[in-house]
Amino acid sequence: MNNNKIELLAPAGSFDTLKTAVNAGADAIYIGGSMFSARASATNFDNIQITEAIDYSHCRNVKIYVAINTLIKDEELKECIDYISFLNDIGADAIIVQDIGLVHLIRKIFPKLPLHFSTQSTISSTEDINALKNFDIQRVVLPREITIDEISQISKNCNLEIEAFIHGALCVSYSGKCLFSALNGGRSGNRGACAQVCRKKYLLEVDGKIINDKLSEYVLSPKDLNTSNSIDKIIQSGVTSLKIEGRMKRKEYIHVCVKSYRQLLDEYMKYGKISKQNIEDANYNLNRVFNRSFTNGYILNSQGSNIINNSYQKPIGQVIGQVIEYNKKNKKLKIKLSENVQKGDGLDIGENIGRIIKSDGKISDTASKNEIIYLDFIKEIKKGQTIHRTYDYAYEKKLEEEQKIIKKLPISSKIILKLNDTPTMTLKDDNIHIVQNIDFKIESSKNSPISDETIIKQISKTDTFPFEIKNLEIEKSENIFIPVKILNELRRKALEQLYSEKINSFKRNHVNYNIDEFLIEKNNNCDKIKSDLSVFVYITSENQLDYIKPYINNIQIIISSDINLYKKIYEFYPDKAVYQLPSIIKQNDFINISNLKASLNAPRIMFSSYSFIKDKSAYIANYHMNIYNSLSHKYYNSQNIYTVASLENIFANSDEYKYLNDKSKIIIPVYIYPHLMLSEFCPHKDELGKCIYDYKCKLPNTAIINEQGDRFLFEKFLNCKTSIIYEKPYFLNKSQIIKYIEQGYTNFMIELKNENKKSVDTIFSNII
Question: Do 333 and 228 have their domain in common?
Answer without folding.
Answer: no
